[in-house]
Amino acid sequence: MLELLIPANAIEVIGNFLNAGGPVVVALLCSTFLMWLLITERGLYFLFGHRRLMGRAHDAWENREDRRSWEAYAYRERLISEVRIENQRHLNVIRALILITPLLGLLGTVTGMLEVFQVIVDTGASNARLMASGISRATIPTMTGLAVALTGVLSISYLDRKHTRSIAALSQDLKVEAGMGHGSRRRLSGSSLEAGEVDITPLLDIVFILLIFFIVTATFLDEIGIGINTPDETPPEELQRPPPSMILNVRNDGFVMVDDVRLADPRSVTPIVEAFRAENPQGVVMVSAARDAKVETTVLVLDQTRMAGVEPALTLQARR
User: Fold this and answer.
1) What single-letter DSSP state applies at residue 240?
2) Region of 274 on the Ramachandran plot (φ > 0 left; ψ -120 to 50 alpha; else beta)
3) Domain residue limits at 274
4) What is residue 180's predicted lDDT score, i.e. its pLDDT?
């Protein structure tokens, strides 16, 4: 805390506070400065200027000889009204500023919530790290507005109490003698009691802050889709050109015809396939078995082809 006494550190802290709270905090600080300027002026008045004003009113009444007529009563009320008007100077403005500060805090809460909702729209999830800026702009103005309003309420209560007591004391000092239907002990309080009002603005702030809390702590369900493997992009010329192929025809006599050109033993298929694959890495090997070929021979050819590192495609020959 002692570091804040250094001007450079204090300016940096204030700048960070304003950046975190947004432009609404700037308006709050301006209204706070004006409110406390008026409160300070009223405090100095009640400490110094008020006594002189009360003394002049008391001397003016004491110097008057007539204290029984209607004119004396009207003059007494004029003296009390002058003190009342001077006591209440700027008090209504202070009350208005006290009411404005929670409203500005509510405005900051709404703008912060808009930023939080925008983060949810952009990311599709409640990421607390991304929403931290919006949450700061929603909570800092509320905190500032409530703190300023609280200090303002205490100050205006003190000023109202000083005003009421001074008017009551002045009414007691300026006595009217009995006569013309006026009692000698009549007092003018000079102020009427106003009905108390409940400001619900802080309650609205609490509702919005709770809503932000639920948004941050909520877990959004991620929809799980079906993965689709799309084919790789292939040039059109490669799509039009079929890969080279080797056809191994398994005959019913137990031999294998390679591409209908040469006859081979089923047990010697492996080197034939290896030689074909060495020349054509992308080549395809097909095993075409006759319908009356022996199963053992067909399985042997398939195994020999797999031993060459190729997974063959098996087909059955049509009946002739």
Assistant:
1) H
2) alpha
3) 237-316
4) 47
